[in-house]
């Protein structure tokens, strides 16, 4: 991939066909080299090593001794099975069952310190556990559903409906205007963000809407601008709880941006030099989105164009 964003680049073979076989899954979990990452309410367990922070991996047998009925099959890593287990509740397991072997980190903090491949695996596990937590009952008849396919499916025992993890597509775009003395890009700010933080614009796709149409609608709604062209940049799985960020550069027809005061409280235009200063932490008033966010990649790509 030309642009590999954090939470993308999962190195595992997901074994999509094999995981549908319960006997095969049971065999994988019983293998002596089967291992499991550990999460607590969506936070991965991380340990320090000579090479820096890394996920804490336990043998599957050890993980099952601590956590029952909260496991997922993540895939195969060099033909060896990889699972995840998750603790629930308000009490930190690092003060109990896993004392002394690591600490649990909120996923955004984990993304900033883990390798790209480990962040991708942890993010995928978090999204699956979040989906399982929110979709315990059949949307068709209301019956409690059962886990299948190693956690990648839930089946209703009453009506037979199969439920699969959902991914919510989101367009995230950097509006750019080329009609002035030099190109400029637009950043927006939400009131809830940290002081000075500004970022790209974003919004969920709606039913019956293309990516380009969603981009144009969101830019119009949030900033009052008309999109005249779009260019795809990259995508990013975003496990909060389970979105797919579709990154775009969106050329707009004018520079008369007006924040809608609902999604955005303010907007600001930047030249490429100013955008580079934001990314370097040298702008006097604007803070960049974190480096692990696709918004950071969009700004960086545009700011470094010749």
Automatic annotation (TrEMBL):
<protein>
    <submittedName>
        <fullName>NAD(+) diphosphatase</fullName>
        <ecNumber>3.6.1.22</ecNumber>
    </submittedName>
</protein>
<dbReference type="InterPro" id="IPR050241">
    <property type="entry name" value="NAD-cap_RNA_hydrolase_NudC"/>
</dbReference>
<dbReference type="InterPro" id="IPR015376">
    <property type="entry name" value="Znr_NADH_PPase"/>
</dbReference>
<keyword id="KW-0378">Hydrolase</keyword>
<keyword id="KW-0460">Magnesium</keyword>
<dbReference type="InterPro" id="IPR049734">
    <property type="entry name" value="NudC-like_C"/>
</dbReference>
<dbReference type="GO" id="GO:0016787">
    <property type="term" value="F:hydrolase activity"/>
</dbReference>
<dbReference type="InterPro" id="IPR020084">
    <property type="entry name" value="NUDIX_hydrolase_CS"/>
</dbReference>
<dbReference type="Pfam" id="PF09296">
    <property type="entry name" value="NUDIX-like"/>
</dbReference>
<dbReference type="Pfam" id="PF09297">
    <property type="entry name" value="Zn_ribbon_NUD"/>
</dbReference>
<feature type="domain" description="Nudix hydrolase">
    <location>
        <begin position="165"/>
        <end position="293"/>
    </location>
</feature>
<dbReference type="InterPro" id="IPR000086">
    <property type="entry name" value="NUDIX_hydrolase_dom"/>
</dbReference>
<dbReference type="Pfam" id="PF00293">
    <property type="entry name" value="NUDIX"/>
</dbReference>
<keyword id="KW-0479">Metal-binding</keyword>
<dbReference type="InterPro" id="IPR015375">
    <property type="entry name" value="NADH_PPase-like_N"/>
</dbReference>
